[in-house]
Amino acid sequence: VAGKIDIVPLRGLPAIRPGDDLAAFIVRALRRRRLRLREDDVLVVCQKVVSKAEGRVVRLGDVRPGARARAFAERYGKDPAVVELALREAREVLRMCDGHLITATGAGWVCANSGIDRSNQNAADEVTLLPLDADASARRLRRRIRLLTGVAPAVVISDTFGRPWRLGQVDVAIGVAGMVALESWQGRRDWAGRRLEHTELAVADQVAAAAGLVAGKDAGVPAVLVRGLQPRRGRGGAAALVRPRAEDLFR
Amino acid sequence: VAGKIDIVPLRGLPAIRPGDDLAAFIVRALRRRRLRLREDDVLVVCQKVVSKAEGRVVRLGDVRPGARARAFAERYGKDPAVVELALREAREVLRMCDGHLITATGAGWVCANSGIDRSNQNAADEVTLLPLDADASARRLRRRIRLLTGVAPAVVISDTFGRPWRLGQVDVAIGVAGMVALESWQGRRDWAGRRLEHTELAVADQVAAAAGLVAGKDAGVPAVLVRGLQPRRGRGGAAALVRPRAEDLFR
Questions:
Q1: A58-63 own/partner pairs: CB under 8 Å, 24+ apart
Q2: Could you give the CA distance from residue A202 to residue A172 in angstroms, rounded to a whole number?
Q3: How many CB pairs under 8 A join A and B?
Q4: Is B179 in a helix, a strand, or coil?
Q5: Are B1 and A214 within 8 A, CB to CB?
Q6: Which residues of chain A have a CB within 8 Å of the CB of B104?
Q7: A246: exposed, middle or buried (C-beta count within 10 Å: 0-12, 13-18, 19+)?
Q8: Quick one: CA dihedral B180, B185, B187, B189, positive or negative?
Q9: How close does chain A come to B204, measured CA to CA in Å?
Q10: Which stretches of A54-133 are DSSP H helices?
């Protein structure tokens, strides 16, 4: 475990559009703050700007809602185009009742409305969809940052999800590159030599939540530098955080 | 949203025993690091040391397991005394299958084994139970810290919980004093003037998760200073984070 950790908000990125070089904007924001990247830094980037840069943007006027989406939207006062998109993005619908639509996305993330996001868009009727493969997005961002700076920090792509049992939303990791997302403590022992029972820590989710403390969604902080964690290097991505359906007691 | 946030581990607390003045130990650890408390700091304290100081410690040898606990423990190779305690601490059993025992505690926290903790205990057959009212524990700690230092930071009591749908554990808040645990964004608007759809942020859970990054459980870091967040002042405690049973889609 490292010493002190710093959570540094990166401000002043422009409105991101499809095809933009997001990594270059982040590198510029770091330079403005006179921060020199280190290999053991973690850059946390909000899903919304990643989706925009990747063109995962849809105009609601272009969507033709089907009967199921229309019926649900009408009953609960929702936008039928948003419901339609959420159903299309879902590989499984967990709950569709009382105005709630909880799905598992293609990548396996369980969240409301398949992660479709209406706030802080570039146009009033635009929404973002989650990146198709946010682990690949994180790897691409990391490669591009290395190309621009010579340094390859870990990259975490975060999104804001609700949870069952607890009120309020927290930021979690949906894409990870250059660090271990799920740290195994198998075999570690406590101070009495007793084997630890809790054997897996969702480090990438805790990094995302920490970044969420400075990345309030109306504050224009689409990226956050986490320094001092010195994360464990490794592959596997955020996919390691998806609980396999067969092991899930709450579906 | 504040600027940079610092997450500072506080080390070197002694093994905590029932009746110990935990606040005094934390204040001493702060002084050793030459940290002067501020009113807008947050002190995150692990449940385990709070439970120990409050005497929420049980020797497994003193527990007589009932038939239900014995049957479950035998079938899945668990300790029957731990299962018995978990059942006694539960106000509701959500799942009891495949070796998993997921309960809601008296305070409403949904977690494995009612939060009973076997690691890092002072004796091999001891376990801690969750504080009966961790919000009250947080308020007591805060009052005592104010008495010792003249300063009343916010206090968060954290524990390490698993989640459905996602693998790995994260730290969450089970007790809060001196700050708003669940921040409402009702009425706030995004940069386009659009009303935000996500209206509640579980700030105290994000603070706990951030502290969890430095408070690895084998590292002897029972308390963490979070500086720079400048949390919103208010009452309500961590109880505000309990999702009412009737609104929960996943029980």
A1: A58/A85, A58/A126, A58/A127, A58/A128, A58/A129, A59/A123, A59/A125, A59/A126, A60/A125, A60/A126, A60/A127, A61/A125
A2: 9
A3: 237
A4: coil
A5: yes
A6: 165
A7: exposed
A8: positive
A9: 10
A10: 67-76, 80-89
| DSSP-based three-state secondary structure for B163 | coil
**CA–CA separation, A123 and B217 (whole Å):** 46
ipTM score here? 0.95
B98 burial type by CB count under 10 A (0-12 exposed, 13-18 middle, 19+ buried): exposed
Tokens of A36: 């020199």
Render pLDDT for B184-232 as a digit per residue (tens, 0 to 9).
Answer: 877 676 666 666 665 799 999 999 999 999 986 555 789 999 999 999 9
pTM: 0.95
| Residue ranges of A 152-181 with Cβ closer than 8 A to chain B | 160, 162-172, 181
d(CA B31, CA B29): 5
Q: State the residue for tokens 């035998």.
A: B74
pLDDT band at residue A192 using 50, 70 and 90 as cut-offs: low
User: Cβ distance A54 to A137 under 8 Å?
Assistant: yes
What is the C-alpha to C-alpha distance for residues B83 and B61, in angstroms, rounded to an integer?
A: 13
- Tell me if residue B221 falls in helix, strand or coil: coil
Q: How far apart are CA A13 and CA B112, in angstroms?
A: 42
- Contact criterion met (CB < 8 Å) for A209 and B205: yes
